[in-house]
C-alpha cells in the first residue's frame, strides 16, 4: 500500500475527474525533490536541476546515449541490477563488469584493481548503483571520494542510480553523488524516484538531477522532442509531491517494518550454518548465499516453486557473481516474510532427505 495520505490526495483527484496533459516544470514538483534531498541527506540541490522522466531506466538509456558512443564500455559493480545489462546492451554499448570483493558477505571495492581497469579498458561511463542492488551496500564517503577521484583521473562520466536511497538500516547514512559536486570534474547525473520508497511504480514517473545545464537541456530535447514524453502522469505528479512533502512518518514506519523483517529472516535461516547471510546496510532485498548447500540452484528452485509455492529470485539473474545466491524481497508484511522464509527452510530440509 502507498501512504494513506497519498491515497486521499489521489482519491480527491479522481473525484475532480481532470486528467489532461500535465506539466511538471514548476516549483511545486521540483522543490518537493530538492527539499527532500536537503531534509533527508543534507544535500543542497537547485530545483532547476530536477527533470521529470518516465522511469529511471529510461533516463539511464538517454544518458548513455548522451555520454558515450556505440561500442563504448560502461563499467558497473557486479553483481548488478539485471536491467543494467539489457539497457547497456540495447544501446549497443558493452557492459564492463567489475566484481565487488566479498569478505564474509561484506562487499567492498578493490580500488587498486579498479584503477587498473579504468586505465586499461577505458570505459566512458561508470554506472553506480548506491545503495547497491542486490548486495545492499551503502557506499561510504571515503569510497565515493575514491570513485570520484579515479573517474576524474580517467575522464569517466558517472551515472548514479540512487533509487534505493530511502530504505536503509538506522545506522546508515546515504550520501548522494551530487553532495560531492565540488570534487566532481566529470559529467555526473543522479537518477532516482519516489516510487521505490513509497510503493508507487504503477503510477509511473521518476526524475534525473542534472547540475550541468548543457547536459540537462540535451536530455530535455530528447525527452520532449525525439520521444514526445514531456507530460508527467497526473497521479505520479501528485504522489511524488505528497510523499516528499508529507510522508516522512510513513517512511519511518516502513523502515522499522523492514528492519524487523530482516531480523526475523535471520532468526529463521541462521540455525542452518551452511547458509551465509548478513543483514544489508540498505534496500529491502536479502542477498542469501547458499553455496555450501549440497543442492543445485535448479533443484532448490524446483522445490521452492513446485512444492512450496514461493518464488525467490535466483542470484545469477544479477550476474555470474550471484550464481550461488537467492535474492529475497522483504518489502511485505512480517507474516508473509516469515512464511516465505519457513518455506525456504522446508525446501532445503526436503532436499536434504532425498
UniProtKB/TrEMBL annotation:
Its cofactor is pyridoxal 5'-phosphate. Its EC number is 4.4.1.13. It comes from the Bacteria. Keywords: Lyase, Pyridoxal phosphate. The keyword Nuclease does not apply. Residues 15-343 form the Aminotransferase class I/classII large domain. CDD domains: AAT_like. It is an enzyme of class 4 (lyase). GO terms for molecular function: cysteine-S-conjugate beta-lyase activity; pyridoxal phosphate binding. Belongs to the class-II pyridoxal-phosphate-dependent aminotransferase family. MalY/PatB cystathionine beta-lyase subfamily. This is cysteine-S-conjugate beta-lyase. The lineage of its organism: Bacteria, Bacillati, Bacillota, Bacilli, Lactobacillales.
